[in-house]
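Build the 3D complex.
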Amino acid sequence: MDIESYLRDPQSRMRFFQRSGVIVGGGGSAMFLAACADNTTTPNVLTGPDESDQADVEILNGALDLELMAVAAYKAGAARLRGSALAIGKKFLEQEQEHADGLAAAIRDVGGKPNRAKTSYDDFPALRTQTDVLRFAVDLENTAIAAYIDALPKLTQRDLRATAAAIITNEAEHLAVLLDALGMDPVPDALVTGRPA
Amino acid sequence: MTERIVIADGDADTASIAAFERDRRELLRRGFALGGAAIAASSVSLLLSVRNAFAQATGDAAILERSIQLENLSVLTYETVIAGDLLSPALARTARRLRDHEREHAQTLTTALTDLGGTAPAPAKGVAEIDEVAEGLGDVKTRADVLNFAIELETAAVAAYHEAHGKLIEARLLQTVASIMANEGQHLVVLRMAAGQDPVPNAFETGAS
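Done.
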């Protein structure tokens, strides 16, 4: 499937992200699969520190799946990138890997077992040009931001929430650089949600 | 603190020179180049002040009040540098865009505070108010100074919001603050690119510099 069809077809995007541990709903909302079951019943007051670490492990593993997929995507796209765009791709690949390593460590810290990368990610849309790669990366970064923001209040540990916020902000920075590389406004919205305005 | 001493009448004021040298040596000891002394020195007080302010804030309403004050100061800072005529037309457009974002943040946070039954603090009135958390805006003299000052201000905002994530109670508020923090990170990207810096130096953007 080419990138244009992928971006325009909500069903394709939903299927793609679901295989990667993320569910994408109508209106561009995204959430980690592990966290979506109780999405509609999430109370507006955060849960206390005595909640099970298991909930955090499931959310963190959903985030880890997405980060590992992003690493694979930047690797797959690197062949189409040149010059400054290639430097950007390499840098972001390293940072997504840092996120994955950090999440895996956090999962182990609370007694969980981190998910591993899939042996192959053969369901990416066709990335034939540099623009294809950049547009796909924009979609990945937006989806990650939306999923992390959805998961944020479901994390029971305060330090994990702060770490998630630091990752969200980094993904938003990636987004700004990618939009700029595409010749678009790098800072289109005052509130970054990862969802269409 | 002055960056340079001008001896108008040709008679050296030895006391002033001695004071200047003390300041200069102190700055150099702290690792700052003299050319950026005013900005670098201000960044230290800014970061400490903002972090202390959030450290002392307990409860969602108190954190919101501090956040609104910070956003108001950011609006005033951008207003001041736009009026200062140091920016190129393109950079002035960027500054106006970032100012508008900071204003939108303040409005969003004010709505959230009002929903909690609180009252928003008054908007910042003058540069003297900025000096309470960020001395040195009055010393900004070049385009590079402006960019450095704005980068420090946005970095401080990211640091403050990062800290707030460990304190906020209400879920929707946590998500709103995350959206604002992410936007401040994007502001940093734009400013760093304009300053010729690495736009995304850290995988975890915490505002630690």
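The interface with chain A takes residues 97-98, 100-101, 104-105, 108, 158, 161-163, 165-172, 174-190, 193, 199-200, 202-206 of chain B (CB under 8 Å).
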